[in-house]
Amino acid sequence: TEVTEKLEEVVMIWTKQIRQVLVESEQIRREADDVGPSAELEHWKSRMSSFNSLLDEIKSSRVKKIISILQAARSKTLKQWKELDRRITIAANEAKDNVRYLYTLDKCFGPLTNASPVMMEHIPSLMNTVCMIYCTSPYYNTSEHMTSLFLKITNQMINTCKTYLCEG
């Protein structure tokens, strides 16, 4: 029982740390007013990296051994642990999926950045890709994500126009 108590303390520390990571990941992002759509991809790539690292740690042999010992001891701390494991897996899957979908948009960002203000020829393919993401993504098709993406696309269009005017 002494070993079990020590292991439960360790798991409780991990639980607290993981909860903190999850809370921080769910907070509203503060971004500059003129940030473009490539920042959205970078955000999700960073989030994917963080959660994949966390998943790798959770799936490590050391952690698995501790969890199996606590399972054998029928520890009550495992209920919380399993819930956090589930939430981390969902967050990692969301980030991975969002990166995959946003990469399809990445090819549209270049012309948007380097175009003259007469960028109308690029808009249909951009909107078709955004529509495809909205219709098929299990995670990114929320009002919050779409609003953020459209805001960044609009920012990029404005920045492109400003650059064009300053050069002209």
Automatic annotation (TrEMBL):
One GO CC term, this protein: axonemal dynein complex
GO MF: dynein intermediate chain binding; dynein light intermediate chain binding
Signal peptide: none
Record Pfam families: DHC_N1 (PF08385)
InterPro entries: DHC, Dynein_heavy_tail
Gene Ontology biological process terms from the UniProt entry: microtubule-based movement
Stretches assigned to the Dynein heavy chain tail domain: 5-166
PANTHER family, per the entry: CYTOPLASMIC DYNEIN 1 HEAVY CHAIN 1, MALE FERTILITY FACTOR KL5
Name listed for the protein in its UniProt record: DYH5 protein
Organism: Gymnorhina tibicen
